[in-house]
Amino acid sequence: FGVLIERLLLRWIYKLDHLYGLLLTLGLTLLIEGVFRSIYGVSGLPYDAPDALSSATDLGFMVLPNYRAWVVVASLVVCFATWYVIEKTRIGAYLRAGTENPRLVEAFGVNVPLMITLTYAFGAGLAAFAGVLAAPVIQVSPLMGQNLIIVVFAVVVIGGMGSIMGAILTGLGLGVIEGLTKVFYPEASSTVVFVIMVIVLLIRPAGLFGKEK
């Protein structure tokens, strides 16, 4: 499905400002969400965790569900594996060069359009993987990703556009900060991420790990 979206829609606006791609994908998200809401409704459906991970571990200061621990470990492994492929391998070098100067990379015999399509498909696969991991925690519903879109955008902006490691570290840090805020001052837990985003943009517009142009 991700490949079809890239092939039929996104490739026609690559030469335009990146904002058009953001608006297009956001519009598609709302459209698909509306279709699923009309078919299945908005009530969440339970999605049980695997039996092997259904228990919990007493850490002394807290009881940690085994499935949530598995989600943290699996997410870290996938994130750092993605970072390694893009930043430390030849394929990643081709991809980074292809986004900066596609004509030069094509001169070396690299099929840049196909590489971009496969990259988009990989990104869609990561999103699906994240949805499967989150399903036992927040249930399955057409709205399960709605509240995360703006938060994810804030994470990318704070970490720095184009910085994968920045997004990973920022996501972990903001998750800890939001969790602590829920414990000590629950009223601010839904806004603390955006307060941090405003402060970071005022001090460092390119983000914590982004490069100034």
Protein described:
- The chain is built from nine helices and two strands, in the order H-H-E-E-H-H-H-H-H-H-H.
- Strand 1 and strand 2 form a beta hairpin.
- A two-stranded antiparallel sheet has the order 1-2.
- It has three domains: 1-42; 48-141; 142-212, no CATH class.
- By secondary structure, it is an all-alpha fold.
Question: How are the secondary structure elements laid out?
Answer:
Blueprint: H1 2-8, H2 18-40, E1 56-58, E2 63-65, H3 66-88, H4 90-100, H5 102-107, H6 112-138, H7 146-159, H8 164-184, H9 192-203
Antiparallel strand pairs: 1-2
Short summary:
The chain has 213 residues and is an all-alpha fold. It has helices at 2-8, 18-40, 66-88, 90-100, 102-107, 112-138, 146-159, 164-184, 192-203, and strands at residues 56-58, 63-65.
Helix content: 55-70%
| Strand-residue proportion | under 5%
Supply the number of structural domains.
3
What is the arithmetic mean of pLDDT? 84
Notable characteristics:
213 residues, mainly alpha, 3 domains, two-stranded antiparallel ribbon, 2 strands, 3% strand, globular
